[in-house]
Amino acid sequence: MDADAAGHADEMSNPPKTLRTAAALIEAGLVPQAKGDAIERVAATYAIGVTATMAGLIDSTDLADPIARQFIPDLAELSQRPDEMADPTGDLAFSPVEGIVHRYPDRALLKLLHVCPVYCRFCFRRAVVGPNSPVYLGPEALAAAMGYIADQSGIWEVILTGGDPLTLSARRLAGIVSRLKAIDHVKVIRLHTRVPVADPARITAELAGVLLSSGKTVYVALHANHPREMSEAARAACARFIDAGIPMLSQSVLLAGVNDDIETLTKLMRAFVEARIKPYYLHQLDRAPGTRHFWVPIAKGQDLMRQLRGRVSGLCQPHYMLDIPGGHGKSPIGPDYLTDLSPGKTYVVTDYKGRSHVYPPQEPQ
Ligand code: SF4
Fold this sequence. Notes:
The protein is α/β, with parallel strands linked by helices and 365 residues long. Helix content is 29%, strand content 18%. The structure holds iron/sulfur cluster.
């Protein structure tokens, strides 16, 4: 990574009102003065970032506010359990060159930077994102990463991630997509981002045009966890991508105290679909350091998925996914609806109300 962050400060384009210190959070009225020391202790290890948009969504009179819970540091983050790890998804083991994670045959991650518009308290990359890490993939590392993608003819999809790739300037993104444009076997570019909800003004028609100038099929996967994040400004930002011809997907993390109840999940998935965003993944929380207070047991997650199936349109159904620690990739962990009674012949299938049915239906005796 390019350690010369200062040289690129103009391009980090963090909006001036992003809150980055305990003092700024106190001054904004988001935390009481008495919590300042605790927040500073957490901030010594993990970055703080709360954009003006996200700060505006927080109800500071609600001690359990689900937006605050995602972004305001908590002393619980300094309690690390033995089963928590700095690289819970095992990216390092699948990184043939700096900036690339190539785990599956037909797709690769291209990690361009370590900067995000907000810093989520449950982030699976929390050990490497933030101002204490080098900022960008430097020119030589970027050239090597592009060279790797060009050499691997099986890479059909490149996923731009980080950090958040949409914190890059339009000029820098244009440089990235023009290099990908030159690689024939790459057909799809996907970006994973929180910018449309955290800093919607950054999403412009110009930015959409830059992405489409790649000549590739472009998808944007939006990370949002609570329906309040889908504000009017966020929906308008997403519409700028979608109207330009960039389809959008959602990804959310199942988080205790944020979205681990059926009413909130229902509203969140409907908000995505109403904004023309297809619900894609609901992630089981990765075991990143100091995130246990966000943990939801898998049995509860499966029960929520069952309830979602029973009450909400099929359009609103995400896949419930677990990233298997150690770099073994993602697997769906949603509830099973089919039991094989006699291999290949008879099944029991469970309907959306939890009732069981033999399939194929048995002939009356
Ligand atoms: S935006 Fe994504 S990478 Fe950045 S802190 Fe949040 S979860 Fe982590």
